[in-house]
Amino acid sequence: MSEEDRMVVLEGLQHIVRNIANNAINMRLLLMNKTEDSVWIEFEELSRPQLESRDVIEWYNSGVLTREQLLKWGGFPMEGE
Predict the structure, then answer these.
(1) Torsion sign over Cα 22, 27, 31, 36
(2) Which helix or strand (DSSP H or E) is residue 60 part of?
């Protein structure tokens, strides 16, 4: 699974959890005779984990990453660019 796919799945799960929580809050607000949607939950934007160079190099040395992926992570121009 690629990092982009993982982020899409996590964002989808976050959206589902937010909706469930906000629905529960709205039910509680109605029971308290308060205005619906006057309180809600928002999640911070998901971000990619910050990788350290030693981890990326270890992945390259163990064959998890290709040379091109290592160069791209390091911000180096790809061959042929």
Answers:
(1) positive
(2) helix 53-61
